[in-house]
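Case study 2.
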Amino acid sequence: MRLFFVAAAALAVATPASAADCSADVLDAIRKQLSLKSFRVEFSQATAEGEAQMRIDYMPPLRMLQTVTSPAMPGEQQTMLINNRAYAGSGGSFEELQPQYTQSIIAEVAEALARPAKLDGYDCLGTVKFENQDLLGYRFVDKSHSQADASKVVARTIYVDPKSGLPAFNVVSTLAEGSKPLREVKYSYPTDIDIVAPANAPAQKLR
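Prediction:
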């Protein structure tokens, strides 16, 4: 069973010493997000069967509902974690997962919701236009490749809503002009997220 959790951690490489470092601002935004009652993560991911759409609702410290839709699936496939119990199903029908699967899900959700102690290397981009919004941009650049070829330089850009102080997008892309993002994650903050354990869910049968 493979899950598609997305953490907001930085790429583990260094940036130029001359860059104006705004890592503390990024850290503040992430910590603020993780202090909320709930938030939503959305992105798409290429699979062998076609592009899958992911939506993950989180309720820290350890509640999660992941919904996956894909051309290869008959409907929405969902995975849920309620503290130390996990469930999977579709169409509103769930079964409780076996412990070996549950422990893996717990570990991934705990990692995704772990509050970072420190971030380094995010450059200030100032106010930038992204997805038709004026947002604060912060960029972390992968320096493991030569900077001569922008198509090989990978960067993570975190966009923060200046009004709420919360992350709005987390985008990984190369620095090539007009390049398509390798991954674009959208964050949102619906007020009606409520992750509740399914009633009378049967235990998963070993196949």
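Residues 171 and 184 are 4 Å apart (CA to CA).
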